[in-house]
Structure formats: C-alpha cells, structure tokens
Amino acid sequence: MNPLRQEHVKASRTFRWAFGQLPRSPGVPGYHSAPMRRDVGSCTGFMVNRKGVMGSMSESQELANKSVLKGAMLLRELARHESGATVTELAAAVGLSRPTAFRILNSLEQTGFVDRNDAKYTLGWEFSRLARRADPYRSLVGRIQPILEELAESAKETVTLAVPTPGGELDLIAAAAGSHVVGVSVSSLIGQQWPLHASSTGKILLADMSSAKLRENLPEKLEKFTADTISDRKTLLKELQEVREQGYAILDNELEEGLLSLSRPIRDSAGSLVAILTVDAPRYRFGRDRIPGTLQQMHAATEKLVRLMWPGWEGQQAEG
C-alpha cells in the first residue's frame, strides 16, 4: 500500500473520533454496557439514524447550513468504506437523492476532501492532512462532564464513559463520582484494563463485533475472577445475544465480589459504536430493583450526550 493510500485508510479508521471530537485517555474498566444493534430497532431512544432524528428545531439547528450537514453525512459514510464507494451507494446510505449526493461530492472533490478514482470516491488528501493536525480528544471531556455529573447525582453512584479503540480495546475518557461516601472509586478506574468477557463495557464491545471478529478477540479459555464469572464460551455467546436484543448489559458480581454495573451504548449517525455509558455501584446498596429506574436515567443522559456530540443531527432531516 502506497503512503498516500495509508493516510486515507488511517483517516478513515479514526474519522468518527476526529469529527466527533471524542477525547481519549489511557485505560478502561469494563462495566456492563449494552451494544446496540446495527438496525435502528434496538435502543432507539439514543440511536441516531442516518437521516437524523426529527425533533424541535433549536436556534443553532435553524442556523445550520443544510448543504454542510449533508456533506458531513457523506464524509461520515465515506469513512466507513476503506476501498471507496460509488455515489449511488453513498446516496442510498445517507438518504439523499443521487443528484444531490453527486453535487456535494463534486464540491468536496474540488476542495480535496474527497478523491475520485473511476466511479468510486475515497477520503481525499486534504482531509488526511487536516486530520493529522487535529487533536480529536481535546474538547469533548469538558463538555460531557456536566452530563456525567448530573447522572451521578441522580443515580447517587459512579458514572463512567468509555470509547472503543481501533485495536478492539476500551479507553475510559471521563468519570463522575456519586454522592455516597462509600462507592466505586473513580481514581481506581483510570488506567485499568479489564478482561472483555468479565466486564460490562467489554460485553458491549464483544456483542457489537461480527462473528469473525468475536472469534478473534475471544480466547478459548475464559479466566474466572469470581464464582459468578462466565467462563464458558457458549454461555457467554448466549448472554451477548441477550445484550444485543435488550440494548443494555448488567455485570453482577462477575469481575469483583460485590460489584454491579449497568451500561448502555452510544452510536453515531452511521450506526457505529462510539461510546459506552456505565453506572457502577456496590451490590449491598444497589439491588436489582433499582435497575429499571437507573436505566431510564441513563437513557435520558445518553440522549443528551448524542445531542452534544452531534448537534446538527437532532431536528435535521436530510432532503434529497
């Protein structure tokens, strides 16, 4: 692969973080978070579809330039196709008419943000150049922290946000402590790496993987950490299917004695898993009777995070 093509591939793989300004910090604890399915039918409350979610128009949305928003939609979709995509494929994926998509792609090609080789488009050299200069992890933590703190206050438990990495791992990027004196220590979470099969965030990540990638990332022998750790592959695969269907995951005494965690996934407009929201609590205080109410609180927080990370999507319906 020539150096130019390598830059395009690298930009494609990291695009959703660069565009969304998602920050990263070392290490991630794995607490239960549910992977969202590729279709819009799962976890619809905070899943943004490719055409956007209809809603009330805020002032910022009214001022948004629709052509720019459509261009962003096409760039996001194009970033998912390392070998390129045709205008017909891109238009269908984002819900635009073919003439509209062609017109926008032509403008992006003139500015160097996309390249065209025969009938296929790829991310362009100018896009790769700007992506190398950007720090995709600089600004988001400060903006999402109030949402995490609000959830931690209402749930009275520790809240974390983790993001998946290209290498199939997880990074904890932000956390907020609950109001209880005794609880899960935020400082103890940062910098830690937890086994995917015995963590809630890990189960979300595993459930989001294809069968081939799952076989690649899941060892034959699953280590036990407590008496409740799932160490049988067949049992774990069954639970991962439940996670896909219900839209959240529960970790109950599987990684550490007395720890219970709930997690929900966050997806971008293209349907890719970009973050996992988790609430961690000691079992003696957080019984299963609190799970439904906490999941509702997490749902509301996740919707706020989606609006913050992709403000142009809520209330914007792509027009062909």
UniProtKB/TrEMBL annotation:
Organism: Streptomyces daliensis
PROSITE patterns in UniProt: HTH_ICLR (PS51077), ICLR_ED (PS51078)
Taxon lineage: Bacteria, Bacillati, Actinomycetota, Actinomycetes, Kitasatosporales
Classification via InterPro entries: ArsR-like_HTH, GAF-like_dom_sf, HTH_MetabolicPath_Reg, Tscrpt_reg_IclR_C, Tscrpt_reg_IclR_N, WH-like_DNA-bd_sf, WH_DNA-bd_sf
Coiled coil: none
Pfam name, any one: IclR_C
Classification via CDD domains: HTH_ARSR
Residue ranges of domain IclR-ED in the record: 126-311
Record-annotated HTH iclR-type domain positions: 65-125
Name used for this protein in its record: IclR family transcriptional regulator
Biological process annotations from GO: negative regulation of DNA-templated transcription
